[in-house]
Amino acid sequence: MTDNHGTDVLPTLPATAAAGTRGRLIRPLLWLVLVLCLASDVVISSAHLGLHRGLLIDLPVGVLGVACIVGLVVHHYRSRQH
């Protein structure tokens, strides 16, 4: 939002500060979701829900777990120092 003089009314964070804050929040969140996916996969697998019910629950949880792993790898390579 700008005022009549063309200057920004709301202050913005520099790009590096915003990226650093995001980086500090996204990695623990990805790890938490990954651990929850692994724990729920163990519970679902041991519950013997049958093929159809097990796939309806287990498949999305597995896909989410793989997405977390991919996110952690991408975050690692993007944030490492050259």
Report on the structure:
The protein is mainly alpha-helical and 82 residues long. It is built from 2 helices and no strands. The protein has helices at residues 15-46, 51-79. Helix 1 (15-46) runs antiparallel to helix 2 (51-79). The longest helix has 32 residues, at 15-46. The two termini are 37 Å apart. The mean pLDDT is 80.
Helix tally equals 2
Uncertain ranges: none
Main β sheet profile: none
End-to-end separation in angstroms reads 37 Å
Shape field: elongated
Radius of gyration: 20 Å
Helix content: over 70%
**Series of secondary-structure elements, N-terminal to C-terminal:** HH
Query: Structural class, judged by helices and strands?
Result: mainly alpha
The count of strands amounts to 0
Mean pLDDT, to the nearest integer, reads 80
Q: Give the percentage of residues in beta strands.
A: under 5%
Short characterization:
The chain is mainly α. Helices cover 74% and strands 0% of the residues.
